[in-house]
Amino acid sequence: MIVRSILPELHRCLTKKTKSDEEHKLAQPTKYAEDEEVLRVPIALAMVKLLQNLPKGTLEHSLPSLLIKVCEFLRSRSKDIRNITRDTLVKIVDSLGPSFFHYVLKELRGALTKGYQLHVLSFTVHSLLKSMTAILRPGDLDNCVQSLTEVFSKELFGQVAEEKEVEGIVGKLFEARSSKSYDSYEILAKFISKSSLTSLIIPLKEVLDSTHSHKISKKVQEVLRRVTLGLIENKELKEETLLIFIHGLANEALPLITPDQKDKSNTSKPPPDPRLHPPSTFLLTSAPPRGGIKPSGNQKTNMHILVDFGLQLLYMLLKRSRVVASNTQNLQMLDPFIEILSNCLSSKHVKIVTTSLRCLSWMLKFPLPSLKDHITKITNQLFVLLKNYATAGGAQGENFELVVSCFKTITVLVRDVKFHSVDTNQLQILLGYVEEDMHDFNRQATAFGLLKAILSRKLLVPEIHEIIGKVAQLSITADAPNVRLQSRQVVLQFMLDYPLGKQLKKHLEFYVTNLQFELESGRESALEMLATIFSSFPQNILTEHAGFFFVPMAASLVNDESAQCRKLTALAIKSLLSKLHSDQRDELLNITMLWFQDEKVSHRRLAAQLCGLFTEVESAKFERHMPTVLPLILQQIEPGRYQGNEPQSLKELDHLLFNSLTALGKLLKEINIIRNPRWTEDMNAMWVSIQSHLLHPHTWVRLATARLFGLLFAAWTPEEIAQSEGVRKPKAKPGKVEEYVQQDTRQKLRELSIAFCTQLQSSYVDQELADQVVKNLVFLAQVIKLLNPPLKEKHRTVVDNSDEKPTDLKWLIRKMCREAKFEAAQNQKSSLKVCYDKWQQLVSHRRLAAQLCGLFTEVESAKFERHMPSVLPLILQQIEPGRYQGNKPQSLKELDHLLFNSLTALGKLLKEINIIRNPRWTEDMNAMWVSIQSHLLHPHTWVRLAAARLFGLLFAAWTPEEIVQSEGVRKPKAKPGKVEEYVQQDTRQKLRELSIAFCTQLQSSYVDQELADQVVKNLVFLAQVIKLLNPPLKEKHRTVVDNSDEKPTDLKWLIRKMCREAKFEAAQNQKSSLKRSSVLRWLAAVAVNLGRSDLPDYIEQMLPPIYAASVDSSLQADPALKSLALEILELMKNTVGVDVFTRAYSTLHKTTSERKEARKRQKAQEAVSNPEVAAKRKIKKHVAKKEAKKRKIQEFRPSKQVKKKKLQDMAVME
Fold first, then answer.
1. Using an 8 Å Cβ cutoff, are 317 and 282 in contact?
2. Is the pLDDT score of 27 beyond 70?
3. Is the pLDDT of residue 661 over 50?
4. Cα–Cα dist 545/1030, whole Å
5. Which domain holds residue 669?
6. N or C: lower Cβ tally within 10 Å for the chain?
């Protein structure tokens, strides 16, 4: 029954002729598809699905006629029919599988044979290939390679390619706007098998043989490039297969492009036979044709393109590591390519030479036997290329790539080919190029790479010393950090690998001398080089030159103005000291001790810094120097040295004191001497001196002393100090010295507490000092609490005004609280500007509170309801409209952020806590919704979005039926004490106001996708309520014009407003489709809600924007918008039925066509009746085209700025 009845009926339905089939293309009234034609195309897919489930043989019997008709649909001039047919064909091929693709291709080529159909053919074939990419396997396309290449060649090299440049054809046929054959070639190469590889290339070779057009040659090159990418991705083609293919391709084409091959056509004629009579001298030769004799074509004109294709494929195999040196078979197959590549180096085609060099830069690293036979020839040819192309001004365009590749290949040759060395002359030439390229930023990388390769082979010529000297100079003077780094690497490699002897000191002196270079970058580079030398050089050399390095770097540690350079100097000195033996370090320390005893303050300051570096390097081993070092440092921190000095020397003395304290801190950290009985007397004297410096005027000194006391407190526990104070009643034993904290402990605690509190009082105190002071005071508070437990009542009235009073914890707490109170009272500004700043800060505080409130809500969720009585009123205060009116422009940004954060926090509250319809909060909710409604049209987009989201939450809490029901039953007077909710108060007026507000939000030029989505959701809900409140009006009401607030707010009014927004965007801003897509999605939702019964009453008002988007064929049309419009049309058709929809659609189509024709006639008549207006319109159009052309030129040539038209040029002059 299926075969005899159903399938023939479906086939008749599919092949039935329509009215448009019998009309001439110029006589057809419209270019748009009839509804019947669009609907019957997908029947083919259903038939294929049905045939696949029938017995074997049915599909093969019925498929050809079915495919013929589907392919004939692609002839249609209607874009919609072609798109639907193409999509159907893609689904058919996906269902049938790749094995049926050649049948489809055959029918496509038979149906689409001429004119615009050829554009449709290539476009459709690409769509089919692209859709099958996921299911194709290598070899599936072998049976249709020839057909595919013919289709591609017609589009790329035939008349079809010329038609793509005709603006009239491109504008009318979107398939002709781009060429898809390049992508199709790549897909075909990706899934081709070994046996069809030659069939893919032969058509391209024939095109190259037959053409002399540079344009076509360029196209073939691009095709071969895409084929290369496809072949590399082909999983079936092994490396051996590709190498054989490349070798055959190069061997066949290479003899035609090498200069050694002599052309047989140009061979000279043999000399005349002397035995014959000479030709008559009276015969005149024929006149030459006008324009001269045309040169005959040569087979080798374009053969270099094929050679380049093969070499590019070889290069990609090497680059992607598909051919590796560890595979013996790969090496055997790569070996014959050495001779081919060496021959290619003599080619006259730059691209072939460049690709050959790239291949050689990889293959020279492989152990290939042929390299030994051809390495000399390759080397000589490389130098010939340098001579021809690396001259000044010669490396431009393609030549630049050749020169760079040549240098890279020579670098690999010099560095990796161990069995061959360049001779002295060649090396001198290379050094000359290196010297030249070092100063060219485009070729610096290759120059340094080549120089490193030369140094790695330890090649030596007299010129290399001069080159290294210039590189060393460049390592200091170069502007770019990477150039300085590479220069230092080269010089270091030279010093490490070459036997320099006495010349080594010359290079070391260079960097030591440049520690005084005028630019900071140069000094930093010299220091980094010295640090690298210290970490890389042998220890004996560093020991020999230790003093030579130490003294200049020590001077830089004090004299350099740059903090970064001083830091690098300290690191370099530490690196040097760590590499020396202890004996050598002792000698340098003795020099430092001499500086400690010098009269100059700068020398003693330097000695203090160096002493700290020695301590960091030797760590605990430095204790052996303590008898010498500690007394000298203690001398520097004696308080008497810093009293009564002249103002000019105060800065130097402050630095000396700070550096001495810093060195002392490093000593105490590394060496455990704070509680060592051997050093008790020295420690006591030191802590007395340090305590005297706690209130030094310089903040750095205060910080250093506070840190030292932190080390002291870390060596003791509060209990140990309190215990020692408690047991120290009897007289101390003779000869035993008490430690610093055990001598008059209570008095010291008081003095230190006062000193640290005073440090905190300073107006220059920073975070670091404040943190250290707090740590010290915490320790002191613990000790004071243990020594002075809570006092009795009789002691609590004593006022702290003398030193004899008890030092208890409450006293310390009062002092600290006094500091906080003093800062709060004194550190206030009193000008009007500061008052405004403080008020602005309060706004930021409220904004912060709103954000935190939202976070609390997210954490506690419904449990946060217990805070609502206190939180909600505060948030409602922040969103009152009166707070945001009449403010200064400076405060608008802060206020906008406050309002947005408050609305966001409110949204989180409403989501987590069910209070929207809670009777307890009705009054607050009503006030809140009034405020939120006033912010719907706030200038800031974020505020509009937040307000729209809040109304979304309100609408989610109600159903349209509940609102309508409450509106219907609210006729009697409301009960006393009962407050109506927001949506129940004057519902109709609110619906109108909210609809207008949301439509206005959609009008904004700053509307984004998020806001548009929320507006659509809200308007869908409002449309449902309006439709229930105002059912379709009778005929007598439909003539009423909406020009007053008393008019009914029905659904047609809202639909007109939304359609007006879509129409306005289409006219004013065609490049954007956000508003139109939002309106279309709203119309779709309204259509679904209306259903089959009510949608026919509104379909005429809803169709215009959808129809306009679905038939838009301009260049700026959005494909996504068009697809959405087609989906909505299909939705409406299914909802109301084909008859109703077709009637409405055809009416709209007819009205639109008549209106368009009327405008055309009016413009044509205007050219006669009112020529001035027509002329102005034409001038305006030409000016717009001219400006558009200038903009395009400016985009493609950004360096050339198009001059703007001056105001004087645009003025109308008398």
1. no
2. no
3. yes
4. 101
5. 584-693
6. C
Can you tell me the distance from the alpha carbon of 397 to that of 395, in angstroms, rounded to the nearest whole number? 7
Q: What is the phi/psi pair of residue 649, to 5°?
A: -95, 0
Give the C-alpha distances (Å, rounded to integers) separating 456 from 23, 412, 793. Answer: 82, 11, 87
Kindly tell me if the per-residue pLDDT of 830 is higher than 50.
no
Question: What SS3 state is found at 247?
Answer: helix
Instruction: Give the Cα-Cα-Cα angle 430, 477, 449 (nearest 5 degrees).
Output: 30
Q: Residue 6's pLDDT band (boundaries 50, 70, 90)?
A: low
Domain assignment present for 684? yes
CB atoms within 10 A of CB 469: 14
Cβ count within 10 A of residue 62: 19
Q: Which of 431, 426, 420, 382 is nearest to 404 (CA)?
A: 382
In a domain, 431, yes or no: no
Which of 502, 505, 534, 529 has the alpha carbon at shortest distance from 517? Answer: 529
Q: At what angle do helices 868-878 and 922-934 cross, to 10 degrees?
A: 20
| Contact call for residues 630 and 624 (beta carbons, < 8 A) | no
pTM for the structure as a whole: 0.63
Q: Given this model, what pLDDT does residue 837 score?
A: 38
pLDDT in tens, 28-59: 444 444 556 666 777 788 778 878 777 777 77
Q: What is the pLDDT of residue 225?
A: 93
Both structure tokens of 110: 């038979």
Q: Which structure tokens are listed for 126?
A: 């690409």
- Long-range contacts made by residues 915-918, C-beta under 8 angstroms, separation at least 24? 915/865, 915/868, 916/953, 916/954, 916/957, 917/957, 917/958, 917/981
Task: Provide the sign of the torsion angle of the four alpha carbons 258, 261, 263, 268, taken in this order.
Answer: positive
Q: What would you report as the CA-atom Rg of the chain, rounded to the nearest whole angstrom?
A: 46
pLDDT tens sequence across 182-228: 999 999 999 999 888 888 999 998 888 888 888 999 999 999 999 99
Cα-based torsion angle of the residue sequence 1043, 1047, 1051, 1054 in order, rounded to the nearest 10 degrees: 30
Is residue 614 in some structural domain?
Answer: yes
Residue 682: predicted pLDDT: 85
Going by C-alpha positions, the residue among 524, 520, 488, 522 that lies closest to residue 507 is 488
Q: Cα dihedral angle (530, 536, 540, 541), rounded to 10 degrees?
A: -40
| Helical axes 181-190 vs 116-131, angle rounded to 10° | 40
DSSP string, 176-198: GSS--HHHHHHHHHHT--GGGHH
CA-based torsion, 929, 933, 934, 940: positive or negative: positive
- Mean pLDDT comparison of 353-367, 1122-1136, 1154-1168, highest-scoring range: 353-367
- When pLDDT is averaged across residues 645-651 and rounded to a whole number, the result is 69
Instruction: Give the distance, in angstroms, between the CA of residue 252 and the centroid of all CA atoms in the same chain.
Output: 46
Do 548 and 504 touch, CB atoms closer than 8 A? no
| Range 346-367 average pLDDT | 92
More confident residue, 735 or 1133: 1133
How many CB atoms are located within 10 Å of the residue 605 CB? 24
* pLDDT exceeds cutoff 80 at 23: no
In angstroms, how far is the first alpha carbon of the chain from the final one?
88
- Rounded to the nearest integer, the mean pLDDT of the chain is 82
Question: Structurally, how many domains does the chain consist of?
Answer: 1
Would residue 890 count as lying in a domain?
Answer: no
881-912: pLDDT as tens digits:
877 776 666 567 788 888 888 899 888 888 88
With vertex at residue 991, the alpha carbon angle to CA 988 and CA 995, rounded to the nearest 5 degrees, is 145
Most confident region among 150-154, 263-267, 854-858 by mean pLDDT: 150-154
Q: Is residue 859 classed exposed, middle or buried when 0-12, 13-18 and 19+ CB atoms within 10 A define those classes?
A: exposed
Rounded CA separation 532/490 (Å)? 12
